[in-house]
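As noted in the main text, all predictions were made from sequence alone. Below is one such record, for DUF7330 domain-containing protein.
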Amino acid sequence: MILIPGDSEISKKALEEHSHEPVPEDSPPSYTASEAPGPSSLAALNISIPNVQPCNFVSVSRKDSSIKGTWLLDPMLSIPSELLPPLPAGESERTRKNLSLQTKDGSINANIFVLLTTAEELQKADKMNQRTLIDAGTKDGPVTVRMHEVHSQQGEVRLPIQLRSSSLDGAIRVYLPRSFRGIFRIKVKSGKIRFSKAIESSSTPFSEVNGLKISFLGLFDAAEWQPGVDWNGDELILETTDGNVSVLFDDEENGPAQPRKGLLSKIFKF
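Prediction:
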């Protein structure tokens, strides 16, 4: 979690652009900044706030090149319909991604800062999506997504986040904010799934069958689940055909521990 000084122009500008209509009563619970354990200041995370303008409903699609960039995502920012990218087949305004990064041949390296807001502004907002939807996918190449929270005052909240990432031929590495609490669905055909020690110790495992691992990060409460109702909180969906998957918190510099190779392994390279 990242703190911005109270007079931040970016945070004020983003909040002023929010629309003012109530959300449906069945909206999922928001997440407060105070729920996140661990470091909660800019100095603790050693991460700089990007010098970019807030954005929303951004789509980047390429054929034969990599995607690398930094986005300051404000899920509450209203964008005129004339400026929105066309929706992919089978999608609607309700499923429009707040950030979509897609390439056919190349790596993806995304640094995403998600702006938080006040509970009052969240209730006033005209919000089609009940979650912040982020999708990063490539046909050939590795994917790295670093996601951070940005807030300017105590008591701010955010919408639940659904992060999807996929690669047909490449590793996937994801960094999550400490407040992330929700379901993991990770599928690997040829490779390994690695959690950092902090992620592992905070997760409830459910199953690992045919390459699909399902678990829950954070305190699991069965009472939050209703028969026939899809989970609408934080969600991480990762899939790669050939490559390892690693999941860490955004304040963890080092990845999951790698097994040490013995002398014979070094000599014969296996």
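The longest helix spans residues 9-16. The mean pLDDT is 82. These features were considered when defining construct boundaries for the mutagenesis experiments described in Section 2.9.
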